[in-house]
Amino acid sequence: MPTGSLDSLARPAGTAADGGAATRPLPDIARALRSTTQPRRCIVGRWLDGLNTTDRAEIDEWLASGGRKSSVVRVARSRGYSGSPSMWYSHTNSGCSCPVSAA
Length: 103
Ligand SMILES: [Zn+2]
What we know:
By secondary structure, the protein is mostly helical.
């Protein structure tokens, strides 16, 4: 009787369990891709949410009248905004995670 067959009988249980775990689908990713819940607001959106309506209207008016975004970024930074300037460009161009209607 070959001695190798005893070794192979002792091993398979562990390796089979590992292989099963690796090929299992990731339920979190599947759920996230199909999710219809509102995406999280970007850092700009969350900063704007913290302003009062007067200040928010002031910024909207400034941008709508062709005001420079860099001026808004400068003012925002002096009032607690800690994100990058580029986030302002993606936020105002609807390239962020904010719902379009609320941007
Ligand atoms: Zn945004």
